[in-house]
């Protein structure tokens, strides 16, 4: 399948983060940052030119588009991918980078076109929250797994089992590759959505780093699959959407616990009510 490459000439990091936040509500499959550009990729069939024009107009930015054929994305990412280190806790790197010193968990990935390299604030926020919750012997559901980073980290943190799903073929294949690379034998990668799971599927922890439209649409489904006393972590949320997400979560019984904001993105933690 061909892809559309959309290039925005923007160098200021705050502006980039705002632009990426707005573009993430559309069907883009990946982002790339260069010294003077933010580049977004979309499947040819899912590209919405009018929506991109509207976002660019609001931010007073120009952009250019081009069509690119499917190719070796490993080579493309090797040109730009740099290791990510989160507070001495976890590193995310490609196999051509040396392992950093003084970190507890080292994840080696080949991101291709999948979302979730650790560079993006939403992924980094989710990993930081995971550092603080107990995953030992827990059953985990990673909803919209992307590169599989969160699923892999969940296993490293002691999860008993991890089900990672994504409805994007690139992500499905890439997550499988990255799980194999990291010997993540307790992770099962599945292509699809939460609708494809058996109705009785339940988990101790649900991770969902997706856009707010999907979070809102599946809030009741996530509530049904989270066991009493379980933990829900949500990201892919803009600060102005926090109130909406909290309201919807409360309406299906989730208990709000905490939130953090980084680079114009938010991550929220909720709990499922414990059995009385």
Provide a compact summary of the structure:
The protein has a 7-stranded mixed beta sheet, with helices on both faces. The protein folds into 2 domains: 3-70, Alpha-Beta Plaits; 117-271, Vaccinia Virus protein VP39 (Rossmann fold), CATH 3.40.50.150.
Task: Describe the overall structure.
The chain is an alpha/beta fold and 276 residues long. It has 2 domains: 3-70, YebC, transcriptional regulation domain (Alpha-Beta Plaits, 2-Layer Sandwich); 117-271, Vaccinia Virus protein VP39 (Rossmann fold), CATH 3.40.50. The chain has 9 helices and 14 strands. The chain has helices at 13-23, 49-58, 73-78, 121-132, 149-156, 169-181, 212-217, 219-225, 242-251, and strands spanning 3-8, 28-33, 38-43, 64-68, 84-86, 90-93, 105-108, 139-143, 161-166, 187-191, 203-209, 226-237, 255-262, 265-271. A 7-stranded mixed β-sheet has the order 10-9-8-11-12-14-13, with helices on both faces. Strands 2-3-1-4 form a 4-stranded antiparallel β-sheet, covered by helices on one side. Strands 5-6-7 form a 3-stranded mixed β-sheet, covered by helices on one side. Helix 6 links the parallel strand 9 (161-166) and strand 10. Helix 4 (121-132) runs parallel beside helix 5 (149-156). Mean pLDDT is 87; it is low at 114-119.
